[in-house]
């Protein structure tokens, strides 16, 4: 009797939901996607295997080490990690938007004292996991700052963001001492980790020098770059150095800074050598979206992020001698402030659930296409998201995990980690191509599309149902036709991220959103945070190398079809 009553309630509930959805919304047209594994487009570069965060001292803390282990395990290729504040003065205490290593101090006579203990602890944590540092040269040690007071800030969510720009953001009072610091750091790294290892790193100068992170002028940054690049190359001529890590180039001030910097490294007078130009091995800048709350729901703006990307690509492509240099998008995210929590910034309410994961799938696919269209060499796009130690559960920071429990977005990167070999052709009855997303964002129909790859023994098809407006919508009927599979039996594994799968946030809410989950609840949440199969693995037999997969894909859901043979 209880079972019958439950079934009746479920039937009535389903009928109520159906009646509450407008008729036009129930009539979903079939989305047909064609994947041809035999038509190669380009190598499937792991541009997603790059992560970063403000707080370097979280690296070796409990949840930081756990998350870094998981990130390192999701990829066959080394994952690169970029962190701020590696030269900041302090005792290594972790805090929001803050970090320190005490790498450089001076004695009473102004003589340098180098201490690499904390820097090494950070890099050791990466290298023990097979990861690689993007070694950010910054920020200014207190003893070298031309304006050292005040130095330490105590920012917290809700405070004025400009309060973070204190003495560490200023130029050095002695450029030669600064250069010697950089030289000693690189020499120490080679002695500790070996030349071959350090040659695989990327050394870069500073972060967002066109805004408050740099309290000097553009020319002073360029001078600092020349001194830093010279010091890196003197210590290890084969080391890679780059910059300038400006904010999004679709903003005129950023574009001007980037062009001024690139003009200098190509034809300017070097501040150290007096010769023309400066060493540069890769180019960096940032790209961010801009969510807001509209009519009570979060509305993303993927177009804003893609315009940042594309403008930077356009600028780099305009320099013939630089066009083929690797480009690293040093921060590539849906918006700007990872430490601005949802409780104080409601536009960030996308972060805990599946909107973040579907946005990530759709936006990374377009990064490949934008770079291809401009003919530039996109090496990596850093997701500026990690974890925030000892914060409230699911507080809504831009992070990959909360208190050691993975969020849905991390599972998209697990999907990417299974995509190897070459990108292959995907066609469908397009609502959007990359140009339309760049120019208009996704404000009309949903963006239902796919990214596909093929290697010697496997193929992967990532399919998403994304919309900038986070409002309820019916599931979309999707049919994926795949050509180019081998003859004989092929294993198919279908993974899914949606409200019911690979989603610890929904499980936490179903528990009643406990502020202090029990040990048993944490175990359940940890399991729910892993990437999960939608159906059992199965063996399929493609006919003439072709097969069709049909599914219902929820709004903001992501499926991954993994074929193995």
TrEMBL record:
Pfam family, one: Glyco_hydro_39
Glycosyl hydrolases family 39 N-terminal catalytic domain sequence ranges: 32-528
Signal peptide bounds: 1-25
Keywords assigned: Glycosidase, Hydrolase, Signal
Protein name: Glycosyl hydrolases family 39 N-terminal catalytic domain-containing protein
Lineage of the organism: Bacteria, Pseudomonadati, Bacteroidota, Cytophagia, Cytophagales
Transmembrane segments: none
Family in the record: Belongs to the glycosyl hydrolase 39 family.
InterPro entries according to UniProt: GH (IPR017853), GH39_cat (IPR049166), Glyco_hydro_39 (IPR000514), Glycosyl_Hydrolase_39 (IPR051923)
SUPFAM superfamilies: (Trans)glycosidases, Glycosyl hydrolase domain
Source domain of life: Bacteria
The species this protein was found in: Arcicella gelida
